[in-house]
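We close this part of the discussion by returning to an individual protein. Part of our work consisted of pairing the sequence of a single chain with a tokenised description of its backbone. The amino acid sequence and the backbone structure tokens for this protein are reproduced below.
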Amino acid sequence: MSAPIVQFQDVRKTYQMGLVTVEALRGVSFDIHAGDYISIMGPSGCGKSTMLNLLGCLDRPTSGQYLLGEEDVSQMDDDALSAIRGARLGFVFQSYNLIQQLTVVENIEIPLYYQNHPEHESRDVARKLAARVGLEHRLDHKPFELSGGQQQRVAIARALANNPLVILADEPTGNLDSNSGVEILQLFDELNAQGKTIILVTHDAIISQHARRAIRLRDGQIESDVRSESRESPERKEPDNEK
């Protein structure tokens, strides 16, 4: 087996709330390999949001080590973390986080703009990604002209733009009706089958079943870490997100 692309080694995160110290994560360790599909679950206050912030390089652990690819991001400064986020991670949020003044294709281009890609190349990549998520006929529409499911498809295409090492999805169906939610989860299934590594944060056990592996947190620690062999497929392609 190849080396893991994500490694948490005894990661701890504490917050000082006045005189009270809150231990959000209490010595969490796990590895993730390229092409995996992980769900992170647990009750409110279990540490899901803290773990997502650390995985997304939006925050640093109080102690322990976080390796993303071969880089130790545990103690990087804000500028270095920002560069890592832009180059190696793709984000999909519950509220889509699209820029309302921009078109579909322009929203998808945003990560490439910050990576200084030539404009003509960025536009070509964005068009292809829009087609990949079924929006090739909505390129010039703005978010307010799209349904919730279509907006989330734009967000997924945007997350793919920089060919990320890992896609982080935070309750991606939380604002969608049942049918749109099913379509988005099917899209994640397809992306994973094509080799994309996905980390999905959810409170919903049914949604979690789409993942190949479920990590459940409780009180800042891993309560269980279970891989579903039934989700394995011998026809899955090799991951195409190596940098």
In short: The radius of gyration is 18 Å. The longest strand covers residues 20-32.
